[in-house]
Amino acid sequence: MGAFKAYDIRGIWKKDFDEQTVYKVGYFLPGLLKTDHVVVGRDVRTSSPAIWENLTKGITDSGADVWDLGLATTPMVYFSTVFLKAGCSVQITASHNPREYNGLKISRTDAIPVGGDSGLKDLERLVDTGTVVPAERKGTVKDYSRVKDEYVAYLSGFAPDLDGLDISVDCSNGMANLIIKDILKGGRQHYIYDYFDGTFPFHEPNPLEEKNCADIKREVLKNGSDCGVIYDGDADRVMFIDEKGCFIQPDYITAVLGLYYSRIGAVGNAIQDIRTSRSTTEYLESLGFKVTTWKVGHAFAKMKLREIDAIFGGELAGHYYFRRDFFNCDSGILASLLVLSVVKELKKEGRTLSSLIGQIVRYENSGETNFKLEDKDGAINELYNTYVTNASPTRVLDFDGYRIEFPTWWFNVRKSNTEPYLRIVAEASTKEELEKRMGEIRRIIGKHA
């Protein structure tokens, strides 16, 4: 698989892409986006300095300047793109992927993502076939690390006073460490893996895989915390652990964010991805939100947020987007601040986070299950024929794989845009029906392994 994906450039460093690829991305990007400068940030992965060096050489060889943030969370790069009124930005990161991966997330003016359908395919063609002619007058690298202070000040405006709360935080040895202790104030705070290590020695920086949450679960129980928070490698995603040490499925947190906004009187449009539980949809609707279901991925979510002027949105993967509060972009730290605000209000009322989630969840959900197989299209086609052509679903959504709905159950099947997997999420009114339907789906997929 190549490094150019639907949402970004990402792969195993020195296998899927290398110094020459990165140099050419830097060289051709300013011309493609018609800008004379590029904001650049990077995560703490061991390959990031080499990528930074080659990317910035390509940018300056094109004649454009580099506005260098240094170490940065991915949302900090989005913020900087807007704050500096920049024409383009690149974050060097592989987000939640294992240590051997790295990549580039590209945005244009106003932090609008550059995805496969909005310039990334054109960039790939230039990298593959374009001719490099270094400019006679090269650009320069300028230090913009001061923006970090502006970003911390901005996020601090959303931070609740944590007095009376006990929270445990897993920074995953990643980029949340850059700023989180400057933002969270008050209460009792317990941190683990709160230093940079781009080899991620304790667990992969992917909190969506529950095995990577084992340590933060233990911390919550050991400390008697009201809530546990775990960020991914570049801090654009966040997951939560309730006071009982239980992992909270991220699409349920979309409902919690709806409660936050309803309590401050901000009710309107909201978006969810095609994998989202009916529990979340129904809870948001009960609060007065009009919920739109859309494609998975930040490049799609951000544009839909703008299109329908949604207040916020959420994904099963733990991305949470904010229309006015964060320039249509996702921020794991901002999402955690809003959720902690809800947790604090719950505690004042004598309630817990688990009790709120218990109020929200009404169905049995499989979570996302990955199947690695060769004939993904064959499996999808057989699932479609079984449950659409030869059945009578109540609704079929076909814009990101298929979401096929029946009165008492539904499932979504889609191909991953970043990894070699077929992904399944199913939900039913009872545990028995969920097990039955997942068994059917597994047997169909098994024919195409």
Task: Name the descriptors.
about 450 residues, 6-stranded antiparallel beta sheet, 14 helices
Structural notes for this entry:
The protein has 449 residues and is α/β, with parallel strands linked by helices. Helix content is 37%, strand content 22%. The protein contains 14 helices and 23 strands. The strands form four sheets. Strands 1, 2, 3, 4, 5, 6 and 7 form a seven-stranded mixed sheet that branches. Strands 18, 19, 20, 21, 22 and 23 form a six-stranded antiparallel sheet that branches. Strand 15 and strand 16 form a beta hairpin. Helix 1 (19-33) crosses helix 4 (116-129) and helix 8 crosses helix 11. The radius of gyration is 22 Å and the shape is globular. 52% of the residues are buried.
What's the gist of this structure?
By secondary structure, this protein is of the alpha/beta class.
Residue windows where pLDDT falls under 50 for at least 5 positions: none
Report the biggest beta sheet as strand number plus sense, adding barrel if it closes: 7 strands, mixed
Structural class: alpha/beta
| End-to-end CA span | 19 Å
Number of helices: 14
Helix content: 25-40%
Can you count the beta strands? 23
| Rg (CA only) | 22 Å
Q: Please, what is the average pLDDT?
A: 96
